[in-house]
Design brief:
CATH superfamily of chain B: ACP-like
Structural class of chain A: alpha/beta
Oligomer: heterodimer
CATH topology of the largest domain in chain A: Peroxisomal Thiolase, Chain A, domain 1
CATH topology of chain B: Non-ribosomal Peptide Synthetase Peptidyl Carrier Protein, Chain A
CATH architecture of the largest domain in chain A: 3-Layer(aba) Sandwich
Number of strands of chain A: 15
Distance between the termini of chain A: 12 Å
Structural class of chain B: mainly alpha
Shape of chain A: globular
Number of domains of chain B: 1
Order of helices and strands of chain B: HHHH
Shape of chain B: globular
Number of domains of chain A: 2
Number of helices of chain B: 4
Largest sheet of chain B: none
Number of helices of chain A: 14
Largest sheet of chain A: 11 strands, mixed
CATH class of chain B: Mainly Alpha
Helix content of chain B: 55-70%
Chain lengths: 414, 82
């Protein structure tokens, strides 16, 4: 389906555990690298954390931002700004009326490091010592507010919150803004920065983190029989989306299209995915219907697959239910095996990886799968990247979040 | 122990520099916070909070509007010690 309201991707930006930008992240992903590494051992000694590692940024944001930027932005906003600057430059810094430029940047957790710092200051030094920027730094719309300020995006600035689906939902919302005629260009994505003892302790308490402390790089192993939880990651992914007409008029390079958006909610449990996959299935079906893409044209799927015992298989069965026999031709990639789980940043980073997979016809690998789960009913790309077919192709990026949020995006070749 | 005016100027210049990105050596006594250093009210309150912590003084909110220049702040902090 081609029309003036087609939405295309014209810019990409990221800072991730695999690299400080998109190109280094993609290169590392194709090489099957891991971004997981041990964190400050003092956190473990002092607080008795059961987990000793996380997927921290490959290039700390403080190395690329100025001191005042670091001081007045929570790390979640810092990462978003780093990624947004790259994406905007990558898109050629388009000339666009500010009132036709939107921003949608989500975070799953928000400015929690600022929140915790503020609480420490209050307890240790009293209210008089609290910094005036505490509230504007901790609010969950802070990353999108800074992106909007920097780019003068005045069509609307939104921060949708849906836990680990946030980054994909932001991109879906941006697509809607363009289709509805509220913007010509939208900068969209997700960010997360919660590698700090408190969230790590809290995720560990929910028994969702991998405890493979003796092998951080091998800990995130979606679909492996010995998977034992996710690896907490951090970072941001931002894309520049544009109406196809706007992109064509300025002669922009187009990576791919975001052809379909599917959303659903489980309405079932606060953390567990609904076991039949009904919500996930409805999201994928809605995205395919929205895109006009047939199941047989889907050649690649970037799974949400976080490396939890229950979640990975529900998703695999849901994909099989949606695509039927056509699922046999889908190259399945679980890139969290390399990046860790960026929570609110995950869906955006994985959309970028999906866009590049479609553009370069190359599916990134899934690492650490020594023994595939016998119940996995899909064709997993393991250890090395896999060439995708030439010609017009489509891919799906799935993102699911605590709370029962399901988002599926269909990406098609330009 | 009290800080000398020289030490207060150096410390304040460092705080202003980190808040604004201006080189510390450009934060001279005669500079106006608003007109020369382009500091808005939220940034000014950040600088005041950090200066209170660094020099162990209290700068009342009512007093902040009287601190037009860097020199005003240095002399207020010097006088507020002990």
């Amino acid at each position: 389906m081609t029309g003036t309201t087609d939405v295309v991707v014209t810019g990409l930006g990221a800072t991730s555990p695999l690299g400080g930008d998109v190109r280094s992240t993609w290169t590392a992903a194709l090489a099957g690298a891991s971004g997981a590494r041990p964190f400050d051992p003092e956190w473990v000694e002092r607080y008795g954390l059961p987990v000793t590692f996380a997927a921290t940024l490959a290039v700390p944001a403080a190395e690329v931002l100025t001191v005042p930027e670091v001081k007045r932005m929570d790390p979640s906003a810092q990462y978003a700004i780093v990624a947004a600057r790259e994406a905007w430059a990558d898109a050629g810094a388009p000339e666009v009326d500010p009132e036709r430029l939107g921003a949608v940047v989500s975070s799953g957790i928000g400015g929690i490091q600022t929140t915790l710092d503020g609480w420490d200051t209050l307890r240790e030094k009293g209210a008089r010592r609290m910094l005036p920027m505490t509230v504007p730094m901790l609010m969950p719309n802070s990353p999108v507010a800074y992106v909007s300020l920097e780019l003068h995006a005045r069509a609307g600035a939104h921060a949708l919150v849906s836990a680990c689906a946030s980054g994909s939902e932001a991109i879906g919302y941006a697509v809607d803004m363009i289709r509805a005629g509220r913007a010509d260009v939208v900068v969209a994505g997700g960010t997360e920065a919660c590698i700090h003892p408190m969230p790590i302790g809290a995720f560990a308490a929910s028994r969702t983190l991998s405890l493979r402390n003796d092998d951080p790089a091998g800990a995130s192993r979606p679909y492996d029989v010995d998977r034992d939880g996710f690896v907490l990651g951090e970072g941001a992914g931002i894309v520049v989306l544009e109406s196809a007409a706007h992109a064509a008029a300025r002669g922009a390079r187009v990576y791919a299209r975001i052809a379909g958006v599917g959303l659903s909610a489980d309405g079932y449990h606060i953390t567990s995915p609904e076991p039949s996959g009904d919500g996930q299935i409805r999201a994928m079906r809605a995205a395919l219907a929205d895109s006009g893409v047939a199941a047989r044209d889907v050649v690649h799927l970037n799974a949400h697959a976080t490396s939890t015992v229950v979640g990975d298989l529900i998703e695999a069965r849901s994909v099989r239910a949606v695509l039927g026999d056509d699922a046999d031709r889908v190259a399945l990639s679980a890139t969290k095996s390399m990046t860790g789980h960026l929570l609110g940043g995950a869906g955006a980073l994985e959309t970028i990886l999906t866009v590049l997979a479609v553009q370069e016809r190359m599916a990134p690998p899934t690492i650490n799968v020594a023994n595939p789960d016998p119940e996995l009913v899909l064709d997993l790309v393991r250890d090395t990247p896999r060439q995708l077919p030439a010609g017009d192709v489509a891919a799906i990026n799935n993102s699911f979040g605590f709370g029962g949020h399901n988002v599926a995006l269909v990406v098609t070749s330009a | 122990m009290a800080y000398s005016e020289q030490e207060i100027l150096a410390g304040l210049a460092e705080i202003v520099s980190e808040e604004t990105g201006l080189p510390a050596e450009t934060v001279l006594p005669e500079k106006s916070f608003t007109d020369d250093l382009d500091i808005d009210s939220l940034s000014m309150m950040t600088i005041v909070t950090l200066a209170e912590d660094k020099f162990s003084v209290t700068i009342p909110d009512d007093e902040v509007k009287n601190l037009t220049t860097v020199a005003d702040a240095v002399s207020f902090i010097a006088g507020a010690q002990s």
